[in-house]
């Protein structure tokens, strides 16, 4: 007896069920809360996930000038999530992702953690990545700007290390939906260091992070920024989208305003949080594994040793070789600076971004 043919209606139903089963694996591992968040905030609908992905994939033919090196379902899905399932916007981001890599080939040669330049940047704490997420499920990235030793790390290698870190983190579907927070501590970042942040390299960073990467950034927070960082903003402002500008916050020394947006229980003590001081080697050890060698590669004093807190519990640290002063970043419990008249403008978004 030959194979039994199903009626057309049942065949269609079976195909639909198969497509749904195929697509639900893309949401495997997501908590029910995150799935609901994706539905409400990102317009993600598991019933039409396959169609959404295929619509983006069908647009690839319109850009023969770009080499789309990866087009699988899971990869395209992260671009849809980054653009709230607007297919045209998601495709535009996908195209910019690969075009950025084509235009900056040297940045992506040997694009892995054991590349010497990337490895040095990682070991020096660029970026820092906190183990736990905030109350919205967002991953918190840290940049301690003063740790940039310009004789050791080029800005390009620091940017490469940040982009590589994001590539690793964005593999997590929860982070594709919940997104990221970036905190930049400008304590002791000198005018000389700032002078190396030219418009061209800042534009390179903005294009790589804002325009060409499928990550949702819920906020970029500046703390302890000097006046010349404000001046730098005037240089980068033309390159920022309105939406991005709305998500940049200048807190100055007022950590209370930071804590209104990121609760202290999710922050290390450098930012007035309740967690221990951040260990600069944490993320480097995660990416480098056995290749991580603090003794052989890291010639600077660790951040923990560099920071000076004038309390009796830190006398031993204060007696160690002279550290880099980072005391603006850390405050004792109950001594956070309250907002004063005239500080309000520093804690507001630089501009409104949507």
For the biggest β-sheet, the strand order reads 1-2-3-4-5
Q: Calculate the terminal CA-CA distance, rounded to whole Å.
A: 64 Å
Average predicted confidence as pLDDT: 81
CATH architecture call of the largest domain:
3-Layer(aba) Sandwich
The tally of helices reads: 18
Global outline: globular
Overall strand count:
5
CATH class of the largest domain reads Alpha Beta
Strand content: 5-15%
Number of structural domains: 2
Helices and strands: which structural class? alpha/beta
Can you give the helix content as a percent range?
40-55%
CATH superfamily of the largest domain: CRAL-TRIO lipid binding domain
Folded structure, characterized:
- The structure is a single chain.
- The chain has 354 residues and is of the alpha/beta class.
- The protein has 2 domains: 28-103, N-terminal domain of phosphatidylinositol transfer protein sec14p (Helicase, Ruva Protein, domain 3), CATH 1.10.8; 113-288, Phosphatidylinositol Transfer Protein Sec14p (3-Layer(aba) Sandwich).
- Mean pLDDT is 81; it is low at 12-23 and 295-354.
- 44% of the residues lie in helices and 7% in strands.
- It contains 18 helices and 5 strands.
- The protein is globular, with a radius of gyration of 23 Å.
- The termini are far apart.
- The protein has a 5-stranded mixed β-sheet.
- Helix 3 crosses helix 5 (87-103) and helix 4 (73-82) packs across helix 5.
- The longest helix has 17 residues, at 8-24.
């Amino acid at each position: 007896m030959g194979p039994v043919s199903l009626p057309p209606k049942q065949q269609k139903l079976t195909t639909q069920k198969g497509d749904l089963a195929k697509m639900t694996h893309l949401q495997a591992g997501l908590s029910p809360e995150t799935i609901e968040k994706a539905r409400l905030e990102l317009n993600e609908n598991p019933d039409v996930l396959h169609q959404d992905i295929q619509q983006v994939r069908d647009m690839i033919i319109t850009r023969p000038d770009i080499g789309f090196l990866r087009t699988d379902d899971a990869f395209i899905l992260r671009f849809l999530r980054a653009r709230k399932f607007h297919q045209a916007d998601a495709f535009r981001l996908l195209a910019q992702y690969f075009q950025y890599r084509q235009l900056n080939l040297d940045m992506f040669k040997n694009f892995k953690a054991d590349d010497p330049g990337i490895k040095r940047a990682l070991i020096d704490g660029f970026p820092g990545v906190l183990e736990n997420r905030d109350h919205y499920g967002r991953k918190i990235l840290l940049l301690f700007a003063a740790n940039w030793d310009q004789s050791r790390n080029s800005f390009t290698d620091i940017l490469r290390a940040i982009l590589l870190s994001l590539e690793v983190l964005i593999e997590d579907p929860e982070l594709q939906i919940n997104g990221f927070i970036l905190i930049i501590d400008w304590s002791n970042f000198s005018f000389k260091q700032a002078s190396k942040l030219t418009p061209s390299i800042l534009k390179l960073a903005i294009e790589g992070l804002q325009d060409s990467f499928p990550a949702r950034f819920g906020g970029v927070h500046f703390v302890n920024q000097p006046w010349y960082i404000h001046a730098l903003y005037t240089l980068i402002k033309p390159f920022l989208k309105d939406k991005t500008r709305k998500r940049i916050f200048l807190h100055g020394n007022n950590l209370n305003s930071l804590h209104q947006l990121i609760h202290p229980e999710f922050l290390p003590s450098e930012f007035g949080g309740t967690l221990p001081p951040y260990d600069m080697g944490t993320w480097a050890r995660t990416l480098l594994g056995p290749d991580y060698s603090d003794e052989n590669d890291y010639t600077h004093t660790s951040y923990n040793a560099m920071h000076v807190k004038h309390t009796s519990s830190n006398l031993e640290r204060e007696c160690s070789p002279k550290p880099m002063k980072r005391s603006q970043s850390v405050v004792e419990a109950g001594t956070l600076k309250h907002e004063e008249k005239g500080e309000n403008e520093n804690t507001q978004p630089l501009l409104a971004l949507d």
